[in-house]
Structure formats: structure tokens, C-alpha cells
Write a structure and sequence with these properties.
Elements lengths: L1 H4 L11 E5 L4 H13 L3 E5 L11 E4 L1 H6 L1 H11 L6 E5 L14 E4 L4 H37 L3 E6 L7 E4 L1 H7 L3 H4 L14 H12 L4 E8 L5 E12 L5 E10 L1 H36 L7 H26 L7 E4 H15 L4 E5 L5 E4 L3 H10 L8 E9 L2 E8 L6 H9 L12 H11 L3 E5 L6 E8 L4
Parallel strand pairs: 1-2, 1-3, 3-4, 4-5, 12-14
Antiparallel strand pairs: 6-7, 6-10, 8-9, 9-10, 11-13, 13-17, 14-15, 15-17, 16-17
Helix pairs in contact: 9-10, 10-14, 11-12, 12-14
Length: 473
């Protein structure tokens, strides 16, 4: 049906083409004359298959052409499927065994009245029109389905008329984004993607928009099948029937986690740097004024120097931050994390003589990580330098292809509130940190394709990092 099928999306509606595939003679001439004056059809005559046009809507044959070109006519019918292409035999024979029934759709015995012939032809053309309309719909549906399946966005369809509006369709991108297979999704309301840190305000906005039958567009924190969170740019669009009633909801899901993380990181950087820079410069200016007025004490210079050192440390953190945001695709490095941790523990013990640091470390733990992880770990341990009684439990264990590093703080340096904010990977104007180090550690772990978690339910808060063990050669 290649040639005929091309007409499915052709919106130009010309006169239907009727072929008189008949032997030359008086009958063909009379039919051609009648069709030309009494009908709206376009009429073409043909004697053999070389004259038969590639595209037509109905073909009239006589006994000679039906017998001579039986196979060619049958092939045209087969090629046209599933579109109906009628072939009508005009015959003077009464015996059915002289007809090739598999090559014609109707047999008209001659002589026949013009009104009867016109009625028979119009019935076949009406059936053909219906088949063309059906084929067009089916082809459009196939095109739409291919487009939906090829889309990079997740696409779902929910039944608005069923209890709890279950999903009845989810495309491949939805499965790729969420990790759920089709049979785990169909029949469920999409709220199964929500989790403990999903913003209730976003959920309320979504629910109220659906209740009002409106298009809803929100960014919401969802969770994949494996429990990892992701930011979902969600659009929910109502689909209405001819009466205006909502029958389904079309959902579009796009993973915007990377953009949200960059926005958060830039926001954190801006706020922390402004806060710390302002504080340190206030210290420097204050002690400098004391020196200028002659009111300084011997330790003022040391305080100025320390504030300046802290500003330099902020500059170093800015560089590390830049590698996390602007250089996210940096090549991973392989290093043994044990010497780094031992070095940081020794430095803490030297800096804080009364420290109580218990370690459970193997001889080696070689990992593959983003280049920023080394500095992020050093920055994290530097948080404990100013505490008079550092109390830490540090353990590293290898589990299959992972290296687990846990740090339990028994000295109250790590605020439960602060590390829970970092674990949620979100800040608010009322809930935020004044230090970059915990954020840098989390982001460096994530850039290393690792997992960052905290535990605050027990007596002492614990930070856990799961890192990728380097593959042995």
C-alpha cells in the first residue's frame, strides 16, 4: 500500500479517481462518457497494467482484463491493505466459476441501470473513505506513540475518572528517570514518588491545581526506586472530552536535579562568603583602628593575622567550590584515603592535646573520586581544630565495591540541626549554615558518584560517606 498510504496525511481533497480497466470498445466509451457528465469522479481508462495509474480509488474491470490481469489486480489489493481499494467486475457471464473472486470485491451483471451502478460504486467508495479515515487515525496514533516513547521527558497518563487517578501509561523516559518498571507504575497514583523531604507546600499546590482542573507546573523533590532523591520539573495537564469533562491527566516529568544543585550551591556560596567575609573584615578593621589610636594590645596583631588567614581559607574554599560547580566533568583520580585520614587525625591530636580520637582503619582503602574530595575531607576535619576537647570515632570499612567512611562526633562540634540541613540538600532563609565545609564534603562525595548520609537519632551525630573502591588492575 505504499503509494496509496502516502495519501493518509494528504489534506488536499480532490475528486475521487475511478479507473475503467477495460478492453477498448463501445462499453468503455459509454461508461467514460456517462462518468464524465453525470458524476463528480475523475475517470481514467486503462487497457493493461502499464496504463494502470499508481493511485486510484476504485477500479472497474471487464471479463477480459479480470482474466488477463488477475494477479496484478490481486497484488494491488494486497498492497493497499489495510486501506480498502475496491475492484468491481462488470460481466455478462452468469456462472460464478468464471470469475476470480479473490481479485474483485463486487460483481455487477450487465446490463445494469445507471442509478444502480452509481449506487454500487458509491457504496464501495464510502467504505474506502471510512478505511482511509481509520488508517489516518491509526497512523497518527502510531506517530504520536513513537514521539512519546522517543521523548527525553517522562510522560505519564492518569485516569481522572478512576478512584485515586491511577497511572495507565508511562513512557520509557519515566522509567529511566524514576527507576520503576511499567508494571510497578501502572495502577498507582503518582504520589508514590514523594518522600520524607518532599515539600508539603509543593504537594498542596499540585493537589489544589488538580482539584480545580488547571494546568499545574511545579518543581518538587521526588525519590527514585532506589531511594535517591531527584528534583522533578513536573507539569500536569488536564485532558477534556467533547463535553469539557476531564477524563485524564497528562504528566510531564523532567529531572532538573543538576540545575537545582547548581542553584543551591551558588546560593550557599553567596550567602556564606558574604557572611564570613563581612565578619572577618569587621574584625580586621576593628583591630586596625585600635592600632591607629594607640589602644592596641600585643595580641591584636595576632588576631588580625588570624582573620586574614581565615579569609585566605575562604579563597581556597572558593576554588574548591568552583571545581564542583564549573568542572563537574573533571577526570576522577585514584588515591588511598587511609594516609589522608591518618594525617588529619595526627594534625588534630597535635593541635588539640586533650583530643580523644578513636580510629578503626584498614591498612589501605583505595578509592576513585572527584579531585575535590581530598580538599573537602581536609576541610571537614578542620571543623574540629578550634574545639578544646575533640572527641571523634572514625572508621573505614570496605564493602564489596564500596568504601564506607564514618565519623561520629562525641564533642558536639557537628550541630545535629546543621548536618540535617546538609543531608536534606536544601536551605531556607531560616535554616542555613554559616560554614561551607559540610556542604563541600557532601557535594564532593556526590561528584565522586558516592552517597552522603547522616544519622542524628542516636546519642552522637554521625556522618557516613559511601565511596567507590578503585578497581584492581
Amino acid at each position: 500500500m505504499d503509494e496509496v498510504g502516502e495519501r493518509v496525511f494528504d489534506d488536499t481533497k480532490g475528486a475521487e479517481r475511478v479507473v475503467l480497466f477495460m478492453s477498448p470498445g463501445r462499453d468503455r466509451e459509454l461508461l467514460a462518457e456517462w462518468f464524465g457528465t453525470a458524476t463528480d469522479y475523475t475517470v481514467v481508462t486503462a487497457t493493461d497494467t502499464d496504463d494502470l495509474p499508481a493511485d486510484y480509488d476504485l477500479c472497474l474491470l471487464d471479463d477480459d482484463t479480470s482474466n488477463a490481469w488477475h494477479d496484478a489486480v490481486s497484488e494491488r489489493t494486497t498492497d493497499a491493505k489495510p486501506i480498502y481499494l475496491p475492484h468491481v467486475l462488470l460481466t455478462t457471464h452468469d456462472r460464478q466459476d468464471t470469475w476470480h473472486a479473490d481479485s474483485v470485491d463486487d460483481v455487477v451483471s450487465l446490463p445494469v441501470g445507471r442509478d444502480e451502478l452509481h449506487r454500487r460504486i458509491e457504496n464501495h467508495l464510502r467504505t474506502r473513505r471510512a478505511s482511509l479515515t481509520l488508517a489516518e487515525r491509526e497512523q497518527r496514533l502510531r506517530l504520536f506513540q513513537r514521539g512519546i516513547e522517543a521523548a527525553s521527558q517522562g510522560i505519564t497518563i492518569a485516569d481522572a475518572e478512576a478512584d485515586d487517578m491511577p497511572i495507565i501509561y508511562a513512557n520509557d523516559a519515566f522509567q529511566r528517570i524514576t527507576g520503576y518498571e511499567t508494571d510497578e507504575v501502572v495502577g498507582r497514583n503518582c504520589r508514590f514518588l514523594q518522600g520524607r523531604n518532599t515539600d508539603e507546600a509543593a504537594v498542596t499546590t499540585l493537589r489544589k491545581g488538580i482539584e480545580r482542573g488547571e494546568h499545574v507546573s511545579i518543581e518538587i523533590l521526588n525519590y527514585r526506586k532506589d531511594g535517591t532523591p531527584f528534583w522533578n520539573q513536573l507539569d500536569v495537564v488536564p485532558i477534556r472530552d467533547d463535553d469539557g469533562d476531564i477524563t485524564h491527566y497528562l504528566g510531564f516529568q523532567q529531572d532538573v536535579t543538576q540545575r537545582k544543585r547548581r542553584e543551591l550551591r551558588l546560593s550557599v556560596l553567596n550567602r556564606v562568603l558574604r557572611h564570613n567575609f563581612r565578619n572577618k573584615m569587621t574584625v580586621i578593621r576593628g583591630y586596625a583602628e585600635r592600632i591607629e589610636t594607640g589602644e592596641s594590645a600585643p595580641e591584636d596583631a595576632e588576631k588580625i593575622r588570624r582573620a586574614a588567614d581565615e579569609l585566605l581559607q575562604i579563597g581556597t574554599q572558593m576554588y574548591e567550590f568552583d571545581t564542583l560547580v564549573a568542572d563537574g566533568e573533571a577526570e576522577d583520580e585514584v588515591f588511598d584515603v587511609i594516609p589522608l585520614v591518618r594525617s588529619e587525625v595526627d594534625a588534630l591530636r597535635k593541635h588539640v592535646p586533650n583530643s580523644d580520637i578513636a580510629t578503626d582503619l584498614p591498612e589501605h582503602a583505595v578509592i576513585t573520586s572527584h579531585p575535590s574530595l581530598r580538599a573537602a575531607l581536609r576541610g571537614f576535619f578542620s571543623l574540629f581544630e578550634d574545639d578544646a576537647t575533640v572527641k571523634l570515632d572514625i572508621a573505614i570499612h570496605e564493602q564489596n565495591d564500596r568504601v564506607r567512611l564514618t565519623v561520629t562526633d562525641r564533642s558536639d562540634v557537628l550541630s545535629r540541626h546543621d548536618i540535617e540541613i546538609v543531608a536534606r540538600d536544601t536551605e531556607t532563609p531560616l535554616e542555613h549554615l554559616d560554614r561551607l565545609e559540610p556542604w563541600l564534603l557532601r557535594w564532593a562525595v556526590e561528584q565522586s558518584s558516592g552517597e552522603f548520609g547522616v544519622e542524628t537519632a542516636h546519642q552522637y551525630p554521625t556522618v557516613t560517606m559511601h565511596l567507590n573502591a578503585a578497581k584492581s588492575e
